[in-house]
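Moderator note: this is an archived Q&A kept for reference. The question asked for a predicted structure of one protein chain; the sequence and the answer are reproduced below.
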Amino acid sequence: MKGSAFSLLICSTITLLFGCLWCQAAPAKNDAADPAAATPKRESPKSQLTPEQERGLRLLKSAEAEAASLEPDMRAFVLSRVANAYGRIDQRKADKLALDAFTATQAIPEPAEGDYCAAVGSAGDIKSWIQQGVLYEMVHKDKADEVEPLLPQATAPVRDQITSELVRYYESKKDLSRAESLLSQLADSERYPFGAAADLVTALGPEQSGERMTVFNQALNNYEQHAKQSSFGGDDIGTFIEGAWKDVPPALALEAIGKVLEAAKDQQSDSRYSMTSAKGSVVLNSGYDLRLFQLLPILEELDKAKAEALLRERSEVAEQLRTYPKGMQSLQGGSPSVSFGVTDGSHSLTGPAAQQQVEAQLQDRVQEILKKTDTEPAGALASALGLPVHGGFQGSPRASALLQIAEKTTKKKPSVSKSALDEFSGFQEQLTPKEIPDVARLPELYLRLGDVEGAKKALKILLSAAGKLYDLDLDQDDPNRSFKGAWPSTDLWRKSVQQAAKISSSLPEEIISELQDPEIAAFEKVAYGSALAGGSGVNVDAPILISECRKNGVASYRVSF
């Protein structure tokens, strides 16, 4: 993966929970005698907060103050997370902090040439990630007019993404001329929003046929510019034609279909393409076959003879269309989404593919053992101990089985649950960094058994594991060059703080105060303060990216914050 451009993995659907904490004071008995008393009084939000929320706010204010001394990327990140937390309590404060976070991103330096860990548009592009989240929320709070002046300060991917979002926003508000104007700004973009363009063509109405054709031609020209880089998905030229072909002259729709099919034929490869939804699945031998499957139902209505000639050439597509006569529309048919996949056309399993098969077999063994837990808990435990410690794609097979057995037997067979946890604790030192996250559930499971001392010991194991991950993140020979807020060690410390809160209310802040890295300490303070301020003790903020970027490439995944 080294040297390639990694797609931006940002959370485009950050959700803030708004809490209205104002209430009316009881009116005085003699309203007529006291005019002021007749007007309901608003108490401050602070007076409505629980002690837990007050404590959370104290931590958030402390983190906000400390943010000024942090590096620009972590400063912007901390401010954005504090803003998320305030969204439940004080929306005005949340909005101000979000803008402060956006402003703080301006100080994040541009990545060095060739630095694929932080390249614009990559998984490590924290600047874009924060900017996109702030501006997206502003659009959906009906602050689109305030967003447009900020766009020049955003990175190129964010400008395109938010401009696309503004197009959709103005479409929803029936301000079609503004939507069309903004869409024209993306006419040459590699991230052209085909879905929004199709919606706009339809929304313009038959009396605006000229504007419809302008948008249709704009989308088609964009596809021709970037055909070699185009991919299959839910927002591409194929879905654009599906959505807009009825609203333009047949000749123009036929021209578009012809260009898309010709380009797909020119890009033949050994890959196989799949589409899956709740309605079924289709696997085709080439991108050209996929486009035929998608567009032939339309072509059949526009030029039946041409459609039949193409079908005679591709019997496999014809067979699939007999099952799904409307192509992609048949797969969608009320299903919320269609997923796309691309695999190597080779049927032999070697290298990574063979390893994945071995890992899948191990996972099947784990599932077979877990099925025995309800009827033979002791036997399931014995079988789990026979699993290898290492070798699972997502962690340790033995660790995974033991933890799930412990969870399933907490109430019905606590002795088995306790044995499973103790067995796990006995070999946790052998776990690799990839397998360490399994440790995060240990304290909570001990608490379910009422074993507070066991939970405390498990917490020490968790903190030790986080320290080991931190040393690995700092590795002098091959350090993790991802954004520090996304380090695996940062995430495991966050989980440690969450687990500590279940043991004792004083433990989380003790852990945070002992962290030697001030940036990670600030992050953990926000994470814990956010959970407390939410009032439920459950962290419900937007997902974050956990990432490693080393000499051999980037590995990233998302977790709930």
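Archived answer notes: The CA atoms of residues 82 and 502 lie 22 Å apart.
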